[in-house]
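Example 328, ligand XIL.
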Amino acid sequence: MGQALRALAEHQGFQIGACANARMLSADPAYAAALGREFNSLTPENALKFGVLSPAPGVYDFTDADAVVAFAERHAMAIRGHVLVWHMQLPRWLAQAKPDRAELTATLVEHIGAVVGRYAGRISAWDVVNEAVAPDGRPRNSLWRRVIGPDYVRIAFEAARRADPQARLFYNDFGLEASAAHADAADALVARLRNEAPLDGVGLQMHLRVDNGRWLDLLQARMGRLAAMGLQVDVTELDVRVPAAPEPSAADLKQQAETYGKIVRLCLELPQCSSLTVWGVTDKYSWVPHFFPGEGAALLLDNKYAIKQAYNAVASELRRKTAGQEIA
Ligand code: XIL
């Protein structure tokens, strides 16, 4: 077997990451071992979400988040914070309180101050706002937008910058490779934010379904456009799901590996893309089968932690780039 992915990535100052599940980190030693061995960056999968952190107004339980952050630090991994403002996984008490604009703005600013402030200097990048645009290109109908208005996005970025001036601040979204309506609206939002808020980059989630990859050219153009705006463009939640019942087919797994390889290559070729995170360590605990019934096997290690073709495709892109740099 060759070198672990993180060793290949470190040769060129690249971050290869995975999302980390706090429960599995303590429950499954093989999970913790694979995460620490293969990746030099992690994103807590759920532990930093508002609804997970805060059981009651002004009350926070950082137990899981602290455990994930401590794991990353013990293994010399970068940490990406996910997520400060989203329309999902919000505390139940928040909507129930029926806050007015001033109250919800205060809650937003206090929440960001509490969470970003706690990890200031340790979490190097934050997904400040997630999915503010709907797939049809319209603004996302969220509690934040309904009560505060479109300004909530700028307010959130400013609060994050105040709480940790060093952290790089991202707008994160999905589907930007697929739908022109979604991508154009996200571009417009980002272009505006860049002028009025402390925005450092865009995170492309990239929850993909295996297909012919014809959109890859489009994706490359979009990444280039964002980079040309002076923004960092990282891949933040990559997975490539395949039909998985009863078993994934050999052809799909091969195509999946090609897709992984091409995306890693796109990222490595763009100087503004220096971090690529896969949304899970092993197919065993991936979110995909729960959210996309009948699909799965979307990650680099299978449900027995065996290396898949997709893993080898990522490794060989990282190796190619390293070899290229050595020649240069
Ligand atoms: C998912 C987690 O993986 C699940 O465990 C959880 O139940 C729901 O959220 N886009 C995002 C992530 O930004 O936060 C989501 O993570 C996947 C889609």
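Summary: DSSP finds 14 helices and ten strands in the chain.
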